[in-house]
Amino acid sequence: MNPNVKSIIDKAYEIKDDLIQTRRYIHKNAEVGYNTIKTSTYIKEKLKEIGVNFRDIDGTGIVADIGSGEKTVLLRADMDALPMYELNDLEFKSDIESSHCCGHDLHATMLLGAANILKEREDSLNGTVRLMFQPDEEGGTGAKRMLDKGVLDDKNISAALALHVDAKSPLGNLDYGYGKTFASNDSFEIIINGRGGHGARAYETIDPINVAINIYNSLCSLINREVDPFSHVLFSITSIEANSTFNIIPNSAKIKGTLRTYDDKQREYLLKRFETMTKGISQSFMANAEFKVDKSLPALTTSKEFTDKVLKLSQKLEDKININVEPVVKRGSEDFSYISEKIKDNAYLFIGAGKNSQEGYEFGQHNSNVIFNEEVLPIGSALLSTIAYLWLLEAES
User: Fold this and answer.
1) What is the pLDDT of residues 351-385, one digit of tens each?
2) 102 annotated ligand binder
3) 290 lies in which domain range?
4) How many Å apart are CA 303 and CA 214, to the nearest integer?
């Protein structure tokens, strides 16, 4: 084993108890969105203990640098929780309607572990490691707001890496994106305005429910007839709201849905077609409609070349990880996509946090019963440290 990697792994296991304590504090004090005040304060206290300087960005975001020099790699960890109760029996579980059922408590802890390991090796770093602790990944705006506030502006960041735990994957299993990794996410809303009236005199009305049904059927047909089935477009109408009384035709109706794609051109084409079709159908029934995209995340496309380098460096951890042969494509969305748009050399890894090296847990992320194996903490800390340290060492000046 590479002596640098061996010393990194040894250090990761030396601080394992502290990593577990850190994770459990963040887990018990789960905070949602930008309200990660306790979490952010705790992380800054740990950075002070390690001797790492930091600065606040956009309230609860944190950025810190280890090392010096122009060549810089960014390591990003999200730290926000989900607005849901957890139903497991962990002694450190959150007792409020906020919980780390997506594993961001582990992400923040592993990045703190990497900070500890890399700070000890700062004199031999061949460049700079930038640490980014980010709020509101679940809300989809945290990364963009930190970018807008200048998290990258004072450095020429050469590469970026993010790591996510997976409770259903065996401990130490390493999955990775390779090109198309996460879908874009557009949540849209259609407001149809007609003319209400008595249910017995529908002929006097412009029925927005009838319009909504026709829009629903037409949008589904559009996907079936204008989209290549191998292009992985994910489209759903998730809500149709109107009147709740049996004898009144309402004045308006509302449709909500989501569109996910892996291609920016296709995304723009479909959103434009949705709007054109919605307004055209409404007008044909003498109603009018407003089409709004309420929340958007771009698709995450990782660098194949940089991912190859990351996987090659990851292999140096030998029996601590098991790299899967085939890359993964996720149907969900990730706001690391905003960072990938800014930094060409980027990679996204998924590390197994299951029962053991052979078996994952039954429940996955965003389930109230999810459990993560804390043995992943030193593995993830060592993985992040190894990739950053060796990539800087091997990268061309």
Assistant:
1) 999 999 999 999 999 999 999 999 999 999 999 99
2) yes
3) 184-297
4) 42
Domain of residue 383, CATH code? 3.40.630.10
Identity of residue 42? Y
CATH number for the domain that contains residue 269:
3.30.70.360
107 is in an annotated binding site: no
| 12 and 137 share one domain | yes
What pLDDT, on the 0 to 100 scale, is given for residue 227? 93
Query: Is the model's pLDDT at 145 over the cut of 80?
Result: yes
100 is in an annotated binding site: no
Q: Are residues 45 and 132 in the same domain?
A: yes
Other C-beta atoms within 10 Å of 54: how many? 16
Task: Find, among 377, 383, 294, 371, the residue nearest to 101 by Cα.
Answer: 371
What's the confidence (pLDDT) of residue 397? 46
Q: How many domains does the chain have?
A: 2
Mean of the pLDDT values across residues 193-213?
96
The CA distance from 134 to 383, in Å, is 20
Is 232 annotated in some ligand binding site? no
Q: What is the pLDDT of residue 294?
A: 79
Sequence-distant (6+) residues with CB within 8 A of 141 are 335
- Same domain flag for 198 and 314: no
Is 14 known as a binding-site position? no
